[in-house]
Amino acid sequence: MINGKKIVGLAASVAMIAGAAACGGSSNNASSSAAGSSSSESAEICTEGQEVNLTVWGPSEDQTDNSSWLPTEEDAFEKANPNCKITWSNSVVSEGDAGTTVKQDPEAAADVYLFSNDQLGTLVEANAIGAYQGDYLQQIKDHADDTMIQAVTNNGSVYGVPFTANTWFMYYNSSVFSADDVKSLDTMLEKGKVSFPLENSWYLWAFYAGAGATLFGDDGTNADAGISLGDNAVAVTKYLVNLKNNPNFVLDNDGSGLAGLADGSVNAMFSGTWDASDVKSALGDSNYAAAQPPTFTVDGTDYQMKAFAGAKAVGYNPGSKNVAVAMAFAVFLGSTDAQKAHYEIRQGGVIPSDTALASDSTITSDPAAVAQMNTVANASIVQPTIAEMNDANFWTPVKNFGTAIYNGDVTADNAESQTNAFAGQLPAAK
After folding, report:
1. Phi and psi, residue 406, nearest 5°
2. In angstroms, rounded to a whole number, what is the distance separating the alpha carbons of residues 267 and 250?
3. Which portions of this protein are annotated as coiled-coil regions (predicted)?
4. Residue 419 C-alpha from the chain's centroid
5. Gap between the Cα atoms of 50 and 48, Å rounded
6. How far is CA 369 from CA 36, 247, 270, 353, 397, in A?
7. CATH fold label, 170-308+383-424
8. What digits encode the pLDDT tens for the residues 214-254?
9. What angle do CA 203, 204, 206 make, to 5 degrees?
């Protein structure tokens, strides 16, 4: 488990190797200095009485008052590092705005900030985010799923400490479907009403990805690899045509799935943690359940639906005047203890991504938390963040194809020609 005490030792390694960088020296030295191997838990990252100024950016929900998550963790970090006399300056910058805000003036940006992984390319280009190495990097890898690591990796370097995933999964009424039923979409469609946002690119791609489609190579970072629908694309399109025509299929559009759960006209829907409280209210405590996306069967072969997954993470500014302390605090904010505190203080609103918490009773008692963790581990692909993953290349043509399927323009008879035409709208390999 990554905890505050351990991080003190890891940070000490950085301080010893970075030398002057810990007290305002070269950011280049500091950002490459995390390869230290010493982990004496009694070591300090500051000399006794050292004064440190740290600016931290995060969403408003994490800093509403002194009992909020960010001030709580800052206090815990000071207690773990009593030699550091830290003056904190917190400002509201959401994870989704980090890239834009930091890029405006990297030198004046926060020492530590939370960011969404789709901001990573912008942050790296602006030289406003530092890579983790050595013991820090190993700790991150030990406590994050490979999907989460990939989400915060750019050109082979890891730039963030993931603290929660951004993905979707399935909510269902446990009085209609059993835990075994929800493993297979086809089984579910025999027993109850299933709502799915067929016209939404973010969701629809799960079928093609599950059957072998790829986005910009195996890891989503090779623009020259283009987008491939794979060898099973026509069969998947025919499956989706049949899905749309199934009397137990319901299109989820503009909140209709959630409304259907409430009035009983829908028994399962696909969404994320942002809908957890509303779904629980709609189904009631006794019927409220969640699971990773199910499999689907095409021509006798079972394929796993694969949801897009991203991450929210903690980064540090390599230009910080106190870069070693900033780096240590960034890792502290992404630690096991801090992630659990984040979950508890936000009342389940931030599901931890730390794999050490996957068996924690606080987490395992929350169906949405378990479903999200299982989805990331077993039923997801990393959403590419390269510039080529844009509206023209992906989001618009996929949405339009889903709409064409739902409207009946794509049929079993013309599935091959329509799928080929769809493939022609996507960037080919160079």
Report:
1. -65, -35
2. 10
3. none
4. 30
5. 6
6. 35, 31, 14, 9, 32
7. D-Maltodextrin-Binding Protein; domain 2 (3.40.190)
8. 999 988 999 999 999 999 999 999 999 999 999 999 999 99
9. 75
Task: Look at residue 8 and give its three-state secondary structure.
Answer: helix
**Helix and strand numbers, DSSP H then E, in the chain:** 18, 17
Contacts of 249 (CB under 8 A, 6+ apart): 189, 193, 194, 195, 196, 243
* Intrachain domains 4-165+311-380 and 170-308+383-424 with the same fold: yes
pLDDT tens for 387-407 read 899 999 999 999 999 999 999
Of 418, 427, 407, 425, the residue nearest 236 (C-alpha) = 418
Vertex 298, ends 295 and 304: CA angle to 5°? 25
Reported CATH class of domain 4-165+311-380: alpha beta
Distance CA 2, CA 173 (A): 36
How does pLDDT run across 131-172, given as a tens digit for each residue?
A: 999 999 999 999 999 999 999 999 899 999 999 999 999 999
Q: Which amino acid is at 168?
A: W
* Residues with Cβ within 8 Å of residue 93, at least 6 apart in sequence: 57, 58, 59, 101, 110, 113
- Per the listing, tokens 């050292």 go with 50
The residues spanned by each domain of the chain are 4-165+311-380, 170-308+383-424
In this prediction, residue 43 has a pLDDT band, given cuts at 50, 70 and 90, of low
- Tokens representing 151 are 């989400």
pLDDT of residue 240: 98
Q: Which of 208, 223, 382, 370 is nearest to 304 (CA)?
A: 208
Output the pLDDT for position 30. 34
Give the CB-side neighbour count of residue 314, counting CA atoms within 13 A.
Answer: 25
Give ∠ CA 274-346-287 in degrees, rounded to 5.
50
* DSSP per position, 81-120: -TTEEEEEEEEE--GGGHHHHHHH-GGGS-SEEEEEGGGH
Cβ–Cβ < 8 Å for 387, 213: no
Kindly report the backbone phi and psi dihedral angles of residue 89, in degrees, each rounded to the nearest multiple of 5, phi listed first: -130, 105
Q: Is 5 helix (H, G, I), strand (E, B) or coil?
A: helix
